[in-house]
Each structure stands twice: as structure tokens, then as C-alpha cells.
Amino acid sequence: MARTLLIFLLSVLSLAAQENDKTLFSDALRLNIDAYNQRVDEALELGDLDFAKSLLDTLVKTKLQGSYIDPLQFERFDSGIASTEELEKPTILLTYSSWCIPSEGEIPVLNKLSQRYGDMIDFIVLFWDSKSTVRQMAKQFDKNIHIVYVDETQNKHMQTVNLLKHALGLSLSFVLGADGEILDINRRPPNQMNLTENQLFNQNIVFLSRQIAAINIDHNININDLPESLATF
């Protein structure tokens, strides 16, 4: 009996130690955001916009991947989820706002993919807007997508705003493992007026399929089943 109790206590202590070893997203950001912002500013001063954009990918791949999302709160709209602590499945969290128009085709593609993979993945759209504005915009999204929001004028959930909006900017996609591990962060495709409707759709299919593919680390998703274009959508 004593030996069994000892083994149990050692297991608990081991799990606690593993939890303490986890780096939070906020800590990873705090250690690296100043150097990142300085490099971005320098690139912009030199007019090197492409390099400035690439710095986010470098920051994510070298400093932020493998950290764990903080306990963050948001307001429910038509979702049972009000905190990152309530996430139980791998998650794709997209940040939106009414003043930042999504790329043409993004919402239809997102709706289709949420129907296909909603049993394995939680899709969350987080609006930086008032509830009344969200009510109008939410009508565009499939029922499989969780709609949540943070209204900054209410001065609530400011840690969520600071980490998911102010630190890296608008129009982001966060890919989270079932345990909250950050698997990827990307900027969502921008509107490009020189592209055809089919090209815009394909751009969003490729982007969102790659976000889903990142979850392969955490979940048994068949990457070969992911669409690459309208031809396979």
C-alpha cells in the first residue's frame, strides 16, 4: 500500500513539474516582442516591406511555437466557449473586426472547412467589436463556428486584447493544440484587388488548409484529405 501511494505521489509531482516547465505565450512574447518590433521598424524605414512581413513568421517559428496560450477570457455570442481554458479540441482561432474587411472568399471557405472538420477541430471567430455589430456580422458564419467577441470600450478582458490584438496586430489566425500549445500563428490573407474570384477562393483554401495541417502534430488529421484549390474543395 505504501509503495502504491509513493508511486502515485511521484506521478503527481512529475505532472506538476511538467506543467511548471511550460512557457506561457505571454512570457514568450514579453521576452521577444521588443527585438521583433525594432527589426520591423528598421525594415520599414528601409522600405523592405516583404522582409518586415517575414519577420512575423520568424518570430513564430523560433520563439512562439511550443509556448502555451494563457487563460484568456472573451464574451460569448452564440458560443458555449468563453475562455481558452474551456478548449478541449485543437482550435483555429481567427481574429476579426468590422473595420478590417476579410479577403473575398474567406468566410465561405471557412464555413465549408468547419463543416468538414468541425468534429475534430474547434473553429472560433473572435471579433474586436460591440455585441450589436457582431450580431450583424455573425449571420455570415456557419453554425459550427463559435462566435465570441471583446468590446474594448467596456474595458474588460484587456489581457486578451493585449495578447491577441495589440502585440502582433489585426487579422490573425492562431492554431492551438488540444492542450493549448501554440502550433502556428499567421496573418490572414489580405484583400487583393488584382486577383480573380477563383484566385481569392484558392488563396483562402490554401491558407486555411495549411492552418488545419499544422494540427497534424496534435491530432490524427489526414493531410492528403485537405483541399488545395477549388478543384479539390
Describe this structure in words.
- By secondary structure, the chain is α/β, with parallel strands linked by helices.
- It has two domains: 46 residues, no CATH class; 165 residues, Glutaredoxin (3-Layer(aba) Sandwich).
- Helices cover 44% and strands 13% of the residues.
- It contains seven helices and six strands, in the order αααββαβαβαββα.
- Strands 1-4-3-2-5-6 form a six-stranded mixed sheet.
- A hairpin with a 5-residue loop joins strand 5 and strand 6.
- Helix 2 runs antiparallel to helix 3 and helix 4 runs parallel beside helix 7.
- It is globular, with a radius of gyration of 19 Å.
The whole-angstrom Rg is 19 Å
Kindly report the average pLDDT value. 89
Report the count of strand segments: 6
User: In CATH terms, what is the fold-level topology of the largest domain?
Assistant: Glutaredoxin
Helical content, roughly?
Answer: 40-55%
**Whole-number total of structural domains:** 2
Q: Strand fraction band?
A: 5-15%
Largest sheet: 6 strands, mixed
Distance between the termini: 58 Å
Give the helix tally: 7
SSE class: alpha/beta
What is the 3D shape? globular
